[in-house]
């Protein structure tokens, strides 16, 4: 019984991570980058994607992106910590 529970937990975790990969591939969640000029910082983080289509599919995708972001919030935080973050920039050289 304990081995079955461990196997099911591993299967759910693998499906969750694969689902996050599909969500990133479909651009529901994207890595955004912006500058905070007063603090001289460049910030990279995972954020909700935006579909520019004006038809029903684009509107549906934009509505669903909020729910997708909530479901995959733990992995988004981990990816932001690993790939994102802040770094100082030198604005004088630009």
Question: What does this protein look like?
Answer:
- With 94 residues, the protein is α+β, with helices and mostly antiparallel strands.
- Helices cover 54% and strands 21% of the residues.
- A three-stranded antiparallel beta sheet has the order 1-2-3.
- The longest helix is centred in the first third of the chain and has 24 residues, at 2-25.
Q: Looking at the structure, what is the overall shape?
A: flat
Helix residue percentage:
40-55%
The total strand number stands at: 3
Structural class: alpha+beta
User: What is the strand content?
Assistant: 15-25%
How does the major sheet shape up? 3 strands, antiparallel
Q: Major sheet: order of its strands?
A: 1-2-3
Over the alpha carbons, how many angstroms does the gyration radius reach? 18 Å
pLDDT < 50 runs, ≥5 residues = none
- Distance between the terminal alpha carbons, to the nearest Å? 63 Å
- Helical segment tally? 3
Order of helices and strands: HEEHHE
Overall pLDDT, averaged? Answer: 88
Explain briefly what this protein structure is:
This protein has 94 residues and is an alpha+beta fold.
């Amino acid at each position: 019984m304990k081995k079955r529970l461990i196997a099911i937990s591993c299967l759910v975790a693998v499906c969750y991570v694969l689902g996050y990969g599909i969500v990133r591939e479909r651009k529901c969640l994207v890595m955004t980058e912006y500058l905070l000029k007063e603090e001289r910082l460049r910030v990279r983080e995972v954020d909700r994607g935006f579909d520019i289509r004006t038809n029903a599919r684009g509107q549906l995708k934009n509505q669903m992106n909020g729910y997708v972001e909530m479901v995959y919030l733990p992995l988004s935080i981990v990816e932001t910590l690993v790939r994102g973050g802040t770094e100082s920039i030198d604005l004088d050289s630009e």
